[in-house]
UniProtKB/TrEMBL annotation:
Gene3D superfamilies cross-referenced by the UniProt entry: ACP-like
Domain Carrier: 1-88
Superkingdom of origin: Bacteria
Name of this chain's protein: Acyl carrier protein
Entries under PROSITE patterns matching the protein: CARRIER
Length: 94
């Protein structure tokens, strides 16, 4: 990824729809069309491996790391979106 692409990626906000599309293409066995951004992921068919897979894909795509504390707190798509945007905003201001 070029420096310009890095800057552009930091300048745009991550949306719930982007995450749902990422989930749809990730091999996670849930029906992405039925996902709701404010419902618990585990209640929507995710298991702990699915969440770990999602975190790995998000780390690769957005360059944001997830530690054990975040893994326990981020339970909805909206929570992931908020965390990603906050972390990316902090990184662009640094």
């Amino acid at each position: 990824m070029s420096e310009f692409e890095d800057e552009r990626n930091l300048a745009t906000m991550v949306t719930s729809q982007e995450l749902i599309e990422l989930i749809a293409g990730s091999g996670i066995e849930v029906d992405a069309a039925t996902l709701c951004d404010d419902l618990d992921l585990y209640g929507q068919g995710f298991d702990s491996l699915d969440v770990a897979n999602l975190e790995l894909r998000l780390e690769q795509r957005y360059g944001v790391e997830f530690g054990p504390e975040q893994s326990l707190k981020l339970l909805t798509i909206r929570a992931f979106v908020d965390y990603l945007n906050a972390e990316r905003s902090s990184a662009s201001n640094a």
